[in-house]
């Protein structure tokens, strides 16, 4: 039973870390190993210390926060003595691709984004900063709809003094279709003040073209499969 419990904990969807009193990791599950490739162990230990109960035992606190690339809605901290303190984080459900359409046309995504930026620059004094992974091949996209999506997001930052656009491959994540795996790329658009009135329209556009969209306070992020052939 103990071995089964350990295997269950190791394969849990939620990160779990057990520290000693000095913040050294004693036990860690697979999800926490992935998390700690993006975040610092000291940050997790500091959270465990901050949200621990005043006496020995367990305490669960529910609140929204981001750590690494994931969003969480709460955590539990437990300790039975001064030498062991554990923390478990509760991940928010990830949005999934609800459809997959391998259609579209091959396009140079850099050129496509440049066109969107040029259109968004008309009659606006906005400084655009580009942080693009230079290794992207031509991608198969529904060009008109993808352009509409990117342009609609850029319009949300109409009052921003500057907008940063990032394009990168999401390491280690894939979407599977017809027994074939496709890497996922992300497009991040970040600015200052953002108009949220069109977020529902943006979500609908994204869902129709193999995209998932996330909204943050000053950033909008699109995830989409890299269809290269």
Number of domains: 2
Question: What name does the CATH topology of the largest domain carry?
Answer: Heat Shock Protein 90
Shape: elongated
Counted by DSSP, the helix tally is 6
What fraction of residues sit in β-strands? 35-45%
- Gyration radius over CA: 21 Å
- Proportion of helical residues: 25-40%
| Largest sheet data | 5 strands, antiparallel
Order of helices and strands: HEEHHEEEEHEEHEEHEE
Task: Give the CATH superfamily of the largest domain.
Answer: Histidine kinase-like ATPase, C-terminal domain
CATH hierarchy, class of the largest domain = Alpha Beta
Q: By helix and strand content, what is the structural category?
A: alpha+beta
Spatial sequence of strands, sheet with the most strands:
2-1-5-4-3
């Amino acid at each position: 039973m103990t071995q089964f419990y350990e295997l269950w904990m190791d394969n849990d969807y939620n990160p779990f870390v057990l520290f000693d009193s000095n913040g050294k990791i004693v036990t860690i599950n697979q999800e926490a190993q992935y998390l700690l490739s993006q975040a610092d162990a000291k940050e997790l230990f500091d959270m465990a210390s901050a949200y621990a109960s005043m006496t020995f035992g367990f305490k669960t606190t529910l609140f929204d926060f981001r750590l690494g690339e994931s969003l969480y809605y709460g955590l539990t901290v437990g300790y039975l003595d001064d030498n062991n303190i554990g923390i478990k984080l509760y991940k928010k459900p990830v949005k999934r691709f609800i459809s997959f359409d391998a259609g579209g046309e091959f396009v140079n995504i850099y050129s496509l984004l440049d066109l969107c930026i040029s259109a968004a620059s008309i009659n606006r004094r906005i400084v655009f900063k580009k942080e693009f992974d230079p290794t992207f091949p031509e991608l198969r996209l529904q060009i008109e709809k993808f352009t509409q999506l990117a342009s609609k997001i850029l319009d949300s930052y109409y009052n921003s003094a500057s907008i940063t656009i990032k394009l990168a491959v999401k390491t280690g994540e894939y979407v599977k279709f017809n027994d074939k795996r496709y890497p996922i790329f992300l497009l991040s658009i970040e600015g200052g003040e953002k108009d949220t009135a069109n977020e529902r329209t943006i979500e609908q556009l994204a869902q129709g073209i193999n995209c998932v969209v996330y909204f943050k306070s000053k950033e909008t992020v699109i995830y989409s499969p890299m269809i290269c052939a």
